[in-house]
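#help-structures
NK: newbie question, is this the right format to request a structure? protein is Glutathione S-transferase
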Amino acid sequence: MHSARPAYLEINPMGKVPALRHGEVLITEQAAVYMYAAELYAEAGLSPAVGDPLRGSYLRWMVFYGSCFEPALVDRSMQRPPAPPARSPYGDFGAVNSLINAQLSDSPYLLGERFTAADVLWGSALHWTVGFGLVPETPVLRAYIDRILARPAIQRSRALDAALAAELSAVAT
């Protein structure tokens, strides 16, 4: 998502959302916002601690989102042919999509049995991209999305989003 409003460009010169200001700290880039919030509220257990054997996998999936999935998705949506493998840091959309499906084919979450902020990020992204037809729906992705959307905290968050959208819509009309 992008905002070209001058006030927002002071927060993030790229105009990208989300951005989070917490006290004097400003965080931009979606995965960074998720990681910061997960570590800020460590008691929720959404981020494996340094030294946890799952930490590397967690970081991989958080960074893979912006460094591989998003660029591959843009290529696909813009109908750009894939770059030669030696010149593409992520391969192509098919390779990225296959990797995501393979990761989720034998476990409920990206880190196996453990639900993390990576699943919040990916569950939301896959919900929207599958819903808009940008990512092909597979039984594996559908089951994953449904698991994420069924979580009580996700349901509460979606209800808050819907209420805010209704409020903003009422103000705009």
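mod (FA): yep, format's fine, and the tokens are attached above. The mean pLDDT is 93.
NK: thank you!
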